[in-house]
Amino acid sequence: MVSIRFIVTTGLVIAATPAWAHTGTGLASGLGSGFIHPFHGPDHLLAMLMVGLLAALLGGQARWAIPASFLAMMLVGGGLGLAGLAVPAAETGILASIVVLGAVLAWGQSLPAGVAMMLAGFFAVFHGYAHGAELPAGASAVSYTLGFCLATAALHVTGLVAGGVAFASPKVIRLAGAAVVVAGVAAAVS
Fold first, then answer.
1. Rounded to 5 degrees, what are φ and ψ at 141?
2. How far apart are alpha carbons 20 and 76 in whole angstroms?
3. What pTM does this model have?
4. Model confidence at 104, in pLDDT bands (50, 70, 90)?
5. Contact between residue 53 and residue 131 where contact means Cβ atoms under 8 Å apart
6. Helix 141-166 crosses helix 42-58 at what angle (to 10 degrees)?
7. Phi-psi category of 57—alpha, beta or left, where left has phi over 0 and alpha has psi -120 to 50?
8. Where would you tag: which of 67, 121, 142, 159 has the fewest CB atoms within 10 A of its CB?
9. Are 144 and 35 in contact (CB under 8 A)?
10. CB–CB of 87/80 below 8 Å?
């Protein structure tokens, strides 16, 4: 019989394909496009899942505080992108988010919730910027932003649930973090 831990681990390892930040590509408009956007690139997908896993691993108030920090700072970054302001090295920041968040999980040591919130919030600015910068002229910024926020929250919840299921074995969360680090490093060197 296949265990739930095996399924979660396998899914996360399979999802850990090379990540590419994609600022400036693609067509974006409306709620649906905003919702779909985070699922189009493994960069956003993996980072959002890692935020949820980190929140699950730390537990307590961190379960809501870390994802909330990410969402709030993603809105700040999205505003910068919508305003046409440059965020230096946004693609590098997105790629770094995958490697760093994965490494924190692979490390397996407890991080203070405040530090985890700041770390997630810092990387969220880059992800939000990518979303905001991809909005084409004339599209509804409000509905697009709502869409990518809802998708991000859904991915955080997925990470939280996966972390809750896998938490019986912290080794599974560490393995998922290590797989994501490998994916991020592979993307960085390719």
1. -65, -35
2. 22
3. 0.81
4. very high
5. no
6. 50
7. alpha
8. 142
9. no
10. yes
